[in-house]
Amino acid sequence: MTCDALIIGAGHNGLVTACYLARAGMKVTVAEKNDWIGGAAVSRELYPGFTYSNCSYVCSLFRPEIMRDLELPRYGLQILPYEGGVVFMENGDYLGMFRDHDANRREFARHSPRDAEAYDRYSRDIMRHCRFIRPLLMRTPPDPSSFKPRDLSELAYLGRKAMELSEVQISDMIRFWTMSISDFLDGYFESPVIKAYLAVSAIIGTALGPMSPGSAYVLLHHYMGDVDGNVGAWGFARGGMGAITQALKASLEASGGTIKAGHGVEKVLVRNGRAVGVELDNGETLHATRVISNMDVRRTFLKHVAADELPSDFVRQVKRFKTRGSSGKLNIALDAAPKFTALPEGAPNLRGDLHFTDTVERMERAYDDWKSGHFTRDPFQDVMIPTMIDPTMTPPGKHFMSCFVQYAPPRIEGRDWTDADRDAFGQACVNQINRFAPGFKDLILHMEVRTPRELEAEVGLTEGNIFQGELTFDQLLFNRPVPGYAQYRSPIKALWMCGSSTHPGGGVMGAPGRNAAAEILRDARMGIDMSDAYAVL
Length: 537
Hints:
A hairpin with a 2-residue loop joins strand 9 (about 225) and strand 10 (about 230). The model is unreliable at about 525-535 (pLDDT under 50). The protein has three domains: about 1-40 and about 60-80 and about 240-320 and about 465-535, 3-Layer(bba) Sandwich (FAD/NAD(P)-binding domain), CATH 3.50.50.60; about 105-235, no CATH class; about 325-460. By secondary structure, the chain is of the alpha/beta class. The protein is built from 17 helices and 22 strands. The chain has helices at about 10-25, 65-70, 100-110, 115-135, 150-165, 165-180, 180-185, 190-205, 215-225, 240-255, 295-305, 310-320, 360-370, 420-435, 450-460, 510-525, 530-535; strands at about 1-5, 5-10, 30, 45, 50-55, 80, 85-90, 95-100, 225, 230, 235, 260, 265-270, 275-280, 285-290, 290-295, 325-335, 355, 380-385, 400-405, 445-450, 495. The protein has a seven-stranded mixed sheet, sandwiched between helices. It has a five-stranded parallel sheet with strand order 12-3-2-16-22, covered by helices on one side. The chain has a four-stranded mixed sheet with strand order 1-15-14-13, with no helix packed on it.
């Protein structure tokens, strides 16, 4: 039996695509290699009574339009905004962050009155950049080499958007997209700890340091989301990040779609230049009118499609697509809440992101270690304790801690990671936390440590890159993943891409999956836009 659409991978983008296609009346099947679904947006119980957000750990980028279209709150999805953050300083002080803008200004003033004044200007300028980029997230990028009416129309749209800006603003925007976050922040602030906190979003998940050109745009990528309409806000999915993909699963099944888990795709079947289905790793064949890959572009075309089915120039471009991994993850079950000496017990800052790197220079030195092929002994960590807000994830009085870590190279001095390397990496992270919360080690009941090795093997993230490809300027818009194939299509007819290596990029956003579904439906002549697709339900 042949389905209308077969999606490879039950990560969030694959499920978003599947939901839209199923709602438009297609017969949809999702093939997932693991026994569980969710890809990087997954919740699993690896220690009795504790729910871990194993990979992705916070939510903001997921598009509210998708939540509404697919009725995800109806299927249990709830986002809980977190309440602040803190940077613990080497001198025993701290920088606290709060949900309230004025409270942040007062805290900035404690470290630098000048920076408190600059904070309003910085926030205004960042929001201006966000307003320019956000409308592009849910639009298929144009092909600048095409003379098709639709591409010309999209290019004209970009031109009109640019004309809304002054000459100075256009110059500032181009500089922002190409400069380092360190240089950008130097234009506003003088306090090292304030710059360190604001640089965080520019290095999360990327193989760039804070002094690397292009890192400023990565900060903007993280600022483009919202929680309850608050642009730039972040929150936790109640029940862990798997709540997002479980809600998508329920939405898909309500529309008649199915998920086939437990066996991965071995190869895409191509006949006469057209994808006709897939062969699973158990030898089973699934036939489909169209195949949509949620895997990254390198994994899709270099591992699961025969090379002789692809143009050689396309293969060369795919091989050059940058997917350098730079991150690791610790998931920790705690017997009680840790006590940080710099903060009073119950401080609201603990209900947000916790950092232990108080200067941009320390971040850059950690990046230097990555470039040398080592994990750093002084890592940057983005630490969360979501159970401070969501007690459903653990037994009463217990806590779950998530530690996202920069920088972890995909290979150690050119060789594969070993279990000993992984354990030493985990211990370096724990030692850093223990310095600011004495006795922390004694609270650990269980710990899962994930290096790029585990992220690739278990989740399918090539080299452990959480964005399925770096978010550098040369890999954005009509260059993502490669020029000529930025509209979710591939050189093989009926083989599509919907993962984060397509526009607009990574993070738990859902936009690549939604945009891919729009293009598929457009090609299937089921409607000019997504609103027509909903009308067929």
